[in-house]
Design goal:
2 copies of one chain form a homodimer. Helices cover 42% and strands 18% of the residues of chain A. Chain A is globular and about 60 Å long. The first copy, chain A, folds into 2 domains: 268 residues, Alpha-Beta Barrel (TIM Barrel); 88 residues, no CATH class. In chain A, helix 7 runs parallel beside helix 8, helix 11 runs antiparallel to helix 14 and helix 13 crosses helix 14. With 372 residues, chain A is an alpha/beta fold. Chain A has 15 helices and 16 strands.
Chain lengths: 372, 372
């Protein structure tokens, strides 16, 4: 993997970059749609290609549970299994495993957990999650980390940071010695909850190792907007300028803008697809819910400014009707539109950085989405 | 509407035809996918266009209940509402209303029923269902008929035939005087359950009126295969040779073949899409269920002989995985494949008629689907 910054905005830390991976290039900033279980929820893989996404994310925990490592190995990895041949980033499974609060135990060597499907016992070590990601064939792998819930005490957060750092060291060593590091990149993860001192320590320690990129975990997990902005503002500048930065599990348009302002390059989130299935749609004028009676006789497109297949083809009245009727097509169209919106939203930001007017773009969206 | 028979098979009554409608031409025999509630279940309208369907069916009862006549009128009809500009055939609502056994009462003037959604009372007369279909803008409308369940007594079936004939006379008169009969065609419906004498009487009486085409209702509703074949064989030859014949709600590959053999031109059925959502898929070698464990490690396509997007792109192992994971994409891919199969199945039949080898095609499929 190779990362090149091609442009920096003149008044913020926002930047454009090109990420070269084994399966092609990715223009940053980038939003990655999520194929949790080897499929984007409610969308075909050709829709994803048509919208123009350059990279998707999949979840190591879910891939490990089903279809399992053996089947993925037989299939020749996830790219072949899905028949998707652009870059794939996988998380480490850490976030999912730590979300299974009652079903897991943490040890120095790793984390023991029970499958959410059949209750069977499993163990993830830093090495094991890399082995799984090797079979998946991820272009970008993530290290195993310990995630704390929000809010967490300083003590609990500090312990999690220590564990995260130990595991990062083990991961880096294991990666260097067992992987083609050019083909499968490895990103470290910064933890530390909402504590500036812990975030700082975590970054400093991680910088002893030459990871391909650096992710920020444990944000946008319920903390106030101001804390998200504060931790982002203090953490990102500590990261190496020439490496890609990835804000995990983020997020809403304004969270993404805030992070890009400080120099973050990569994002993933299930929110745009999840809210789509609930009828909530992004537009250039803010969010709308297509279920609303105000659209019953509205024969205009979802978003007059959107050029997507759905906006070019259907009216709000039609989309509302099929949503109310529980038609699966409504989930398809809503999801298509929201992901297209995210792609256009990011492209607009890229353009604004290229033209040294990122702050203008930031303010435009802040105005539109201020109440959300 | 204009119908032209272009070829007759040399050893059966199977025939090729071209149906000219206000929204374009339809090559018969034809299978019509069903957009019950203004959407094909689990598929986008561009998928339907890509597969190459020339006509779809929608349900008057469902359109009347939701979104309702007023909204359809505002939208400029169903073609505009769905943004689908090929021919649309609508049923009369009769079948749906008579399926609401506890919720309806039949009178000479029509049928009173309660909405399955909110229990509100409504009344369908022969004239009213045509008025609704006028608003829908159907290229081919159906008359209101009285459908009996299977099995039905001779007496009950006879009464239903009498009512169906009275309503057909009223419908024809109303159509002639209130419609542009070139733009909106009207088909009569033959009832009579499994009683040859009633089927015969019903056809004879209907032939007093010059309908655009003739449908056979009340078959494939649970009767034995032999009775389906017998009633089809005796009813179809009584219908005018130069008018399109439509077997309503049919059906399986073998039911369709049987009817085509006797000269039926048009079919609709939700079965291919419904079974797809249950994991059952048509192939050139018979039906398979993608849930089956035998496909867990099967990296071949669903159907080696199928050229559809799904068969060109994914393996059985992948399709099984996403189906088992309840991914909506599994419903999309399964539905796409089954409808593509139906299209190819019908095209194969068309080709066999053109080449005077329909019986060979019939026997080929009989062998493949004999146990089903």
């Amino acid at each position: 993997m190779h990362f090149k910054i091609t442009k920096k905005d003149h008044s913020t830390y926002a930047r454009l970059g090109i990420l070269h991976t084994a399966h092609g290039i990715v223009h940053t900033p980038v939003f990655m749609p999520v194929a949790t279980r080897a499929a984007i929820r409610a969308l075909t893989i050709r829709d994803i290609e048509e919208i123009g996404f350059e990279i998707i994310l999949s979840n190591t925990y879910h891939m490990y549970i089903r279809p399992g490592v053996e089947l993925l190995a037989q299939a020749g990895g996830l790219h072949n299994f899905m028949n998707y041949h652009k870059p794939i980033l996988t998380d480490s499974g850490g976030f999912q495993v730590f979300s299974l609060a009652d079903l897991r135990k943490v040890y120095d060597e790793g984390v023991e957990f029970k499958s959410h499907i059949d209750g069977s016992k499993h163990f993830f070590s830093p090495q094991k999650v890399l082995d799984i990601q090797k079979v998946i064939g991820s272009d970008i792998m993530m290290v195993l980390d310990e995630c704390v819930e929000y809010p967490a005490t300083h003590h609990a957060s500090q312990k999690a940071v220590q564990r995260t750092l130990q595991w990062a060291a083990i991961s880096h060593d294991y990666w260097i010695n067992n992987f083609d590091t050019d083909t499968q990149a490895l990103f470290a993860i910064v933890q530390g909850s909402t504590y500036p001192d812990l975030r700082k320590v975590c970054v400093e320690e991680l910088l002893h190792y030459d990871f391909s990129g650096y992710a920020i975990g444990g944000l946008s997990v319920g903390e106030p907007k101001a804390e998200y902005a504060q931790i982002t503002a203090l953490t990102v500048p500590l990261l190496p300028w020439d490496k890609p930065r990835y804000m995990m599990g983020v997020g809403s348009p304004l969270e993404i803008l805030e992070a890009i302002k400080h120099g973050v390059d990569m994002f993933d989130c299930v929110m745009p697809t999840r809210i789509a299935r609930n009828g909530t749609l992004f537009t250039s004028k803010g969010r709308i819910n297509i279920k609303s009676g105000v659209y019953a006789q509205d024969f205009s497109p979802l978003d007059e400014e959107c050029q997507c297949y759905v906006c070019r083809t259907f009216t709000k009245a039609y989309l509302r009707h099929i949503y109310k009727m529980n038609e699966i097509a409504a989930l398809i169209y809503n999801t298509y539109h929201n992901l297209y919106f995210m792609k256009q939203f990011i492209q607009g930001i890229q353009k604004s950085i290229a033209e040294d007017r990122f702050l203008e773009e930031y303010k435009k969206w802040e105005e539109v989405y201020k109440t959300l």
